[in-house]
Amino acid sequence: MVNDMEINILGPIQLAGTGTVALPAGRRQRVVLSMLALNARRLTPTTQLVDAVWDGKPPHSAHSQIQICISGLRKLMRAVRCAAQIRTRDRK
Asked: How far is it, in rounded angstroms, from Cα 40 to Cα 24?
């Protein structure tokens, strides 16, 4: 059975599902998950995630590293059996 997800952002950031709690791997994933949680149900531009992770000094690979973080978060969400999804829209 799949349940909704809960994201705990006070204290250590955690992702909770059906009786399971998971911690995002590494600082980047924690920052990205925090930003997505704070912007729940709203579009969060990749540039905003890049700024949050690297504070205005991103490496050339920043966008691909954000994509890797999102992929890892999706796997984490499946592991804790969350019904919620991270959706990606093309830039236009």
From this structure: 17
Average pLDDT of the chain to the nearest whole number: 88
User: What is the chain's Cα-based Rg?
Assistant: 13
Contact 22, 15 (CB under 8 A): yes
Residues 87 and 8: beta-carbon distance below 8 Å: no
For residue 30, give both structure tokens: 């924690």
pLDDT for 1: 35
The Cα 32–Cα 48 span in angstroms is 10
- Whether the model clears a pTM of 0.85, i.e. scores above it, the answer is yes
Place of tokens 């920043």: 62
Euclidean distance between CA atoms 62 and 31, whole angstroms: 13
Q: How many residues can be counted in the chain? A: 92
Tell me the three state secondary structure of residue 60.
coil
Alpha helices of 1-92 — where are they, by DSSP H?
26-38, 46-54, 62-79
